[in-house]
Inverse folding.
């Protein structure tokens, strides 16, 4: 702490590095067998908003034989001071060097965090390449959504956990502890770990490339190693621990509220969406469980707001009654309820109304595409009538600002579809004026991101639109959307481009990552720190073309770099969905009762769980 | 509404919390403790907690004050007890007293603050030498410092009249500076500025940076310092 007292007054937001938060757990190192450090590869405020970390922190610390501490990526100003004073990366609970732990567990939330992973290893004094880490170094593992294509990180990570971690982490720790007791080498430990369902050990697979650079084959190097690694799925949310004493930061973070997961998975089947595939099947929590967890959380955290989180909370079957119950339970203590994103329907607006006493901020909807034709291609079941009806209700109920999310660069997109975005934004604005919202206050924010084709989706074979085309489309929209009251935001095309490369990439990208990190790339998800020029230099030095990766159109017979990882959904289903997309044919949500044949339930021996206990639970209509 | 004055300390890991962070910590602790906090009315209700004087990020506070309002009348001891187990590391409530509704606002009452700064010495420093340096410093009729204003420009201030006492001790490899400064809404002198000015005016063999603590906050009663109770 002495050295920290010399450094911390010189950096921004020093509380990022001190720990000491309410509910942080400091265990005695001499009393446990295994020490794990959860490494979130972004800055404290972002990492502390991550529910997954709180879940695993609680699970690992509840065991008598293990402990978990945390480390986040130091902001560049702190990194500079750490290097100057030769202070290695340390964990927030014990201040011990990360290098002293048995396991470092990274979470892979988005591709642009990969350079931070390498940078953190470097700051910790740990060799980046797995092959250069002997038994004296911690084991480096990783999990999270990007683990569904782990290949770009294959050279650096010893072991990936594919899918949901609540049960897998315990299985892995049991194997590790047993291996440690028997003093197994890392090599032998990994050979044992690979037998745990959901664990992928990249060093145990050989990748062969064809002449043009495509994958020839990906094969296990020996017996007992699965050809395909199947994701882990928690069958019943009721039976896995949910953290009711999460760490409460003293400083301001991105999500400063209680987060209760009410529902996991989403089967609406939007074709661009990877989360919808990797988190299937839908599993809802019982309302009584949500209520009792909320009561405990309010008591143990002191937060003033409860957020019901999921991929689409308005799809949670008992959402209305649960919200009402929570408001009744907690309003008099000054604790409110909030909902993150909303579906485009009247039901959602009514929900939002119940929850927000004050119509502050804006209501956000995600039509994603400007024309019905393109919305059908991506299977986003929203019609123009839906959107306008919802805008009308929102403005009538007192909201003055609406935010609309769109994507550009979607497969089959034409200029007409971009014009559709302009048209919808203007129509929504007009509805606002009609509803009498004062001109000075009325605002429609159009937030446009660039489509990135993701593995395990029906669009995984599609190329990303070229970097220059993306910029052209952005300029086109900027040129047209100059109306007063409309604000246009778009994401840096360079960031989306690099994201696509790594989302679709193979192992050869490891050298690019290393070089990019050496060139100073870090915090690439932060536009003020992203350096496209350095990335391009890293690619050039590695003799690889990023546009080849981002812009590749695969055919159905190609071996994809992530084919040996399974999200549970069959390739035939994804092919079928892709074909339907190109034909503009929509597919229904399987919750409505009709199975769409994705193969998950039979393949993984799971089934959707609805809070009412019924398989064919009532689903609110898309159109009211 | 029943009003209470708390004396608390902010040290250790809490040293680096900002003023807003501190407010947030008390609000959450109050909820965790099950205290019936009184809230302001209006669009964004927040608990009625007011502080004597904000503490800069990085400066610890050994005897700080804040006022709290509750919806229900509780014994001061109950409030102390409740908060005791509900505050995060580094923040400790030392004492709570009931105060009258009509007590003047804390912030308006603050007039003086005492501070202590500690640093490691690079070389030996004799006590006499240190005393001379401080005497020379305090002999100056004016001590100018530069502050950035909101517009980003710089403005010069003379802080000499706000320094009521300053002394130093040299103990082996450590130097300790103590000072009593003007504080509060009528003119606040920042201890960091005094330390910076002292270092700039003389070549004290400091190795590293000073670590700062505010040791007390006071009001004035007939020109004499009095605690804020």
């Amino acid at each position: 702490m002495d050295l920290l007292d010399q450094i911390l007054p010189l950096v921004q937001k020093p509380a990022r590095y001190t720990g000491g938060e309410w509910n942080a757990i400091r265990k005695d190192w001499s009393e446990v067998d295994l020490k794990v450090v959860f490494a979130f590869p972004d800055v404290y405020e972002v990492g502390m908003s991550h529910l997954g970390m709180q879940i695993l922190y609680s699970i690992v610390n509840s065991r008598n034989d293990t402990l978990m501490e945390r480390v986040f990526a130091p902001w560049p100003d702190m990194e500079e001071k750490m290097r100057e004073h030769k202070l290695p990366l340390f964990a927030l609970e014990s201040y011990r060097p990360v290098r002293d732990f048995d396991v470092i567990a990274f979470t892979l939330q988005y591709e642009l965090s990969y350079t931070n992973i390498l940078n953190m290893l470097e700051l910790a004094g740990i060799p980046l390449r797995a092959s250069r880490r002997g038994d004296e170094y911690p084991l480096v593992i990783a999990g999270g959504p990007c683990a569904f294509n782990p290949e770009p990180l294959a050279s650096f990570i010893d072991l990936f956990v594919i899918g949901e971690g609540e049960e897998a982490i315990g299985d892995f720790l049991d194997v590790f502890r047993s291996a440690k007791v028997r003093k197994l080498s890392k090599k032998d430990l990994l050979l044992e770990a690979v037998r745990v369902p959901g664990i992928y050990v990249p060093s145990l697979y050989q990748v062969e490339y064809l002449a043009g650079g495509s994958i020839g084959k990906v094969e296990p190097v020996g017996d007992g190693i699965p050809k395909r690694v199947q994701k882990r799925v928690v069958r019943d949310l009721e039976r896995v621990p949910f953290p009711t004493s999460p760490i409460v930061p003293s400083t301001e973070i991105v999500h400063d509220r209680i987060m209760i997961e009410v529902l996991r998975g989403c089967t609406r089947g939007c074709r661009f969406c990877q989360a919808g595939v990797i988190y299937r099947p839908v599993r809802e929590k019982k309302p009584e469980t949500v209520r009792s967890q909320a009561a405990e959380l309010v008591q143990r955290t002191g937060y003033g707001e409860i957020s019901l989180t999921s991929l689409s909370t308005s799809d949670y079957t008992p959402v209305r009654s649960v919200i009402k119950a929570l408001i009744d339970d907690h309003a008099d203590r000054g604790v409110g309820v909030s909902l993150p994103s909303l579906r485009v329907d009247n039901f959602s607006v009514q929900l939002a109304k119940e929850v927000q006493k004050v119509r502050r901020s804006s209501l956000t909807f995600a039509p994603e595409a400007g024309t019905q034709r393109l919305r059908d291609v991506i299977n986003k079941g929203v019609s123009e009538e839906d959107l306008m009806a919802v805008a009308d209700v929102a403005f009538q109920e007192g909201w003055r600002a609406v935010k609309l999310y769109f994507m550009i660069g979607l497969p089959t997109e034409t200029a007409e579809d971009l014009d559709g975005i302009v048209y919808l934004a203007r129509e929504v604005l007009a509805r606002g004026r009609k509803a009498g919202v004062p001109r000075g206050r009325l605002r429609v924010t159009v937030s446009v991101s660039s489509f990135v084709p993701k593995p395990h989706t029906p669009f995984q074979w599609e190329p990303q639109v070229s970097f220059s085309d993306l910029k052209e489309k952005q300029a086109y929209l900027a040129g047209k959307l100059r109306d007063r009251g409309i604000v246009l935001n778009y994401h840096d095309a360079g960031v989306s481009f690099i994201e696509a490369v790594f989302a679709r990439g193979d192992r050869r990208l490891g050298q690019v990552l290393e070089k990019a990190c050496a060139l100073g790339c870090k915090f690439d998800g932060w536009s003020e720190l992203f350096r496209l020029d350095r990335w391009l230099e890293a690619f050039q030095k590695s003799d690889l073309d990023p546009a080849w990766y981002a812009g590749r159109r695969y055919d159905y017979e190609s071996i994809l770099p992530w084919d040996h990882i399974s999200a549970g959904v069959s390739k035939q289903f994804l092919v079928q969905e892709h074909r339907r997309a190109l034909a503009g044919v929509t597919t229904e949500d399987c919750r409505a009762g009709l199975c769409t044949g994705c193969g998950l339930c039979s393949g993984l021996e799971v089934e959707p769980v609805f809070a009412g206990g019924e398989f064919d639970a009532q689903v609110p209509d898309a159109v009211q | 509404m029943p009003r209470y004055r708390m004396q608390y300390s902010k040290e250790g890991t809490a040293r680096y919390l900002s003023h807003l962070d501190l407010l947030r910590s008390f609000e959450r602790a109050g909820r965790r403790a099950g205290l019936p906090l009184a809230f302001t009315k209006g669009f964004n209700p927040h608990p009625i907690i007011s502080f004597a004087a904000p503490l800069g990020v990085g400066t610890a506070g050994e005897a700080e004050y804040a006022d709290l309002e509750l919806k229900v009348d509780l014994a001061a001891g109950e409030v102390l007890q409740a908060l005791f187990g509900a505050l995060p590391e580094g923040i400790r409530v030392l004492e709570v007293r009931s105060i009258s509704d009509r007590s003047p606002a804390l912030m308006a009452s603050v007039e003086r603050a005492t501070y202590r700064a500690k640093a490691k010495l690079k070389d030996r420093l004799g006590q006499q030498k240190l005393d001379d340096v401080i005497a020379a410093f305090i002999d100056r009729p004016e001590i100018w410092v530069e502050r950035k204003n909101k517009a980003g420009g710089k403005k010069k201030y003379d802080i000499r009249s706000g320094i009521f006492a300053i002394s130093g001790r040299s103990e082996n490899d450590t130097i300790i500076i103590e000072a009593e400064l003007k504080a509060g809404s009528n003119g606040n002198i920042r201890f960091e500025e005094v330390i910076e000015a002292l270092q700039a005016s003389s070549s004290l063999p400091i190795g590293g940076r000073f670590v700062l603590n505010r040791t007390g906050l006071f009001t004035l009663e007939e020109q004499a310092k009095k605690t804020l109770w």
About this structure: The CA atoms of residues 104 and 222 of chain B lie 17 Å apart.
